[in-house]
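Why does residue order matter? Because the sequence determines the fold. Keep that principle in mind as you read this record.
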Amino acid sequence: MTADVVGWPATDAEKYRNAGYWRGESFAQFLSARTRAYGDRTAVVDDRTRLSYAELDEQSDRVARGLVDLGIAAGDRVLVQLPNRVEFLLLWFALMKTGAVPVHTQPGHRSSEITHLARLSEAVAYVIPDKHADFDHRLLAQAVRNDSPALKHVVVVGDPGHGTGFTSFADLLTDRPAARTPKSRARGEDMALLLLSGGTTGLPKLIPRTHDDYLYNGRAAAEVCELASRSVYLAALPVAFNYTMNCPGVLGTLGVGGKVVLASNPDPDYCFGLIGREGVTIAAINPQMAPVWLDEVSMTDADLSTLRVLQIGSARLADEQAERMTDGFGCTIQQVFGMAEGLLCLTRLTDPPEIINTVQGRPISPADEVRVVGPDDREVGEGEEGELLTRGPYTLRGYYRAAEHNAKSFTPDGFYRSGDLVRRLPSGHLIVVGRSKDQINRGGEKIPATEVEGHLLAHPGIRSVALVAAPDPDFGERAVAFVVPAGERSPDRRELAAFLADRGLAAYKAPAEVRTIDAMPLTPVGKIDKKVLAASLRDGSAG
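Structure:
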């Protein structure tokens, strides 16, 4: 660990090693071991490419040699913003082999978020597609590079463009002497990657995950999901998400010698075709996609008979919807509640329907410690609502380069304050009630109210603004902007969406609805009273 990363206390680390949770293995060693065991088996498939374990290992070796030739070294941070393509995994394992650290960004991030992440991580490289979803990432990369002093290289999957100075990913795959393949010296306790927080108090924070803890995360999840070498995992959501990557996801599947199918989009007709063609046994979606998939399943001609488990997570699934999904798909529905910071809860495949349909799972590890506490940090009784605190062998002890925030986000004895409001049943299952932090969960995409409000206040037509979550039947929550206009006219939703896009914010952060009010309700200490605003959404008294 470095001064930028808060490690586990020595006594806890020793306990996790002695229990076998941490094995001192790196991800470079992980891939080598799977290649020896499953070399000719298919490891990963996308719309263009099919690679065996041996090919994934050999081609990631070549990319690693190309990275070294660029000057990327152990410990360097590299921003990764790639869609669900084989190149993501080639790059990811190549970075593991060099000892460099991938920083997982989200597909919808734009200049505001990417520049922030580049500066915070001091990334030396940024890897992008040329175009994806009708967006030219090369223009974004030019803007980020201009504002990020440490950023030396931009690598493009596809056409790097003329006169940009960017490097083609294909050039990294060019044959170089095998003797120049880097030998990773990463230890289990070293930082392997940086994930993103939901950004509850502004721009996203970085979550350091070690080889030891992240390998255990995927291994334990795969065991709960009963994965084996015959398992085929469909990555319908972005592979950079922790949920898709390791819950058990891509890494958990590779760990048992299974096959990973990377879907370019979550459209059910397309994904159902992949399920039938590749023999998918487990897939993961979010509640936003659930009704769309359910509508399609009654009409599809695709063969879904191999699908054994359908995971639904990243936001709470309504009880009634869970029941409809079970009836509609005829396979086991598995509720997933987790966080990139660590703790992962899953319903078990043997849980009865009344559990699967009404709870969000229980921890995957016997070493996961959970407290449900009231405002005074005292534990509440079973079944009572409180904030979830947690620590364990794969839950972080501190954000990356965030000492001030860490002081508020962790208890003195190392429990992470999740901000999730839950109720715990005697069985250990958790029911998610809501969030204590000022964040809106739009179908798994976290919208930090403070950040968006800060940008909206720059609009000349806004005097005061508050972003509040409202219930949404498709996304779980939607963002409503309460606006006190600066003039006679209040800007509408389209105008604000364009304004935020011009300021470099991801499109999903734009408010879904704008309500004009004369004045903000205030608490006794003069702060905006969002509880009053939220109540007005429920009773229809605002707008």
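The chain is about 30% helix and 25% strand.
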